[in-house]
Write a structure and sequence with these properties.
By secondary structure, this protein is mainly alpha-helical. It contains eight helices and four strands. The chain has one domain.
């Protein structure tokens, strides 16, 4: 049996961050609606930047993800070292995202066909990025962390939990859009957001299986135990 090439999980982390940032920049360029996962943060960016012009999309991302980590800690009744590093990942992602938005902004749009191309590319690149992040021990963004923690506790299929989370995030984005910009005034959400909410979970599951067929994921560094889910702060027994 032919041995599969090794893909180090640390590289999967880097690939995931870069791909997700690029995907969000593509989706913003297409302007058919952001991915339901990043749509709430994007809407907050649009609203807050009206008053604070320096408040970038990337900044909105790690502020929103920080709040999500707090909510996850309360739900799980713990705070682990992985949660802390998940926020560090969010800051790293937000920084790369702002750079990608700047660079993609120089690309020609090319009319409706170009917008559709950017949307499809953004959607597929996003799914691939998430699939990579599900194959690393380094804590990923709060979005993926939330899905993985709930999946681990509930023992439900990953694709199902991901789809439920995406649909919930899509609903939140619609509510935020109405609250920030008025009823029936959509900002950051559109038909593209709905398509992502319905299909991203399925596509991520398929891409994850393809990656596992192509590569053998192994750790290059002996750091997995450091990021184990064992809480280093049982956080004063949150809500105990």
């Amino acid at each position: 049996m032919k041995r599969k090439p090794i893909f180090f999980t640390e590289f999967a982390y880097i690939a995931g961050i870069l791909l997700l940032a690029l995907a969000s920049a593509f989706l913003q360029k297409a302007n058919f609606g952001m991915s339901m996962v990043v749509a709430p943060a994007y809407i907050l960016h649009l609203k807050i930047s009206e008053y604070l012009p320096f408040f970038t999309f990337g900044m909105a991302e790690y502020c929103f993800q920080g709040l999500l980590i707090v909510i996850l800690s309360l739900i799980m009744r713990k705070f682990s070292v992985g949660y802390l590093f998940s926020f560090i990942t969010a800051v790293l992602y937000g920084t790369v995202l702002d750079a990608c938005v700047l660079l993609v902004g120089y690309l020609p749009l090319g009319g409706l066909g170009g917008r559709i191309g950017f949307f499809i590319s953004g959607m597929l690149v996003c799914c691939l990025g998430v699939a990579f992040l599900f194959h690393t021990y380094i804590p990923s963004e709060a979005y993926e962390l939330f899905v993985m923690e709930v999946t681990d506790r509930s023992r439900a299929p990953l694709a199902m939990v991901k789809t439920l989370y995406d649909c919930s995030s899509c609903f939140l984005a619609v509510v935020l859009s109405f609250a920030c910009f008025g009823m029936w005034h959509y900002e950051g959400v559109g038909w593209g957001t709905i398509i992502c909410a319905i299909f991203n979970g399925f596509i991520i599951g398929r891409m994850g299986k393809v990656l596992e067929r192509l590569f053998s994921f192994k750790d290059a560094l002996p750091l997995r135990a450091f990021f184990s889910p064992t809480p280093f702060i049982t956080a004063i027994s949150l809500l105990a």
